[in-house]
Design goal:
Keywords: Glycosyltransferase, Transferase. Helix content is about 20%, strand content about 25%. It is of the alpha/beta class. The strands form two sheets. Strands 2-1-3-4-5 form a five-stranded parallel beta sheet. The longest helix is centred in the N-terminal third of the chain and has 13 residues.
Amino acid sequence: MQLPDAEQLLADLTEQLRPVVDERIAMIGIHTGGAWVAKRLHQALGFSLPLGVLDISFYRDDYSKIGLHPQVKPSDLPFEVEGSHIILVDDVLYTGRTIRAAVNEIFDYGRPASIHLATLIDRGGRELPIVAQYAGAVLSLPADKMLELKQDADGKLSLSLRNIRFSEK
């Protein structure tokens, strides 16, 4: 399967977001791939507020089920969450469980006025009623495949496809 160019998707997502960015908007990236995408978007769009990053590992209930072993990293939201307008960024939107977990963690910091979702790729397969307002691309993939975003030493992004190992429990 031919995967899209992650750098081109990032450029497309940047242009989608350009008209909505102003000094009141904050951006948060979800570890790890979402934080990479958010960092690049944050730089390209010149946000006034500092970039936030979230690690949602403690809010996920299915990491071991899908064969992931989280490496917990600290969350950092260096702006006032209460009443803020937030663009939440992830690399791949699939079931919606990562986004639900991220929203739960954001509410631990305060009650934002709004949260919009931006993702590099929406691959469908939602299990929760979550939708991205901004997406670099929409792809359809089999349930046993996982899109993985990689970042090289120069910060360049690329995509790969791998099999998901489902737990037998």
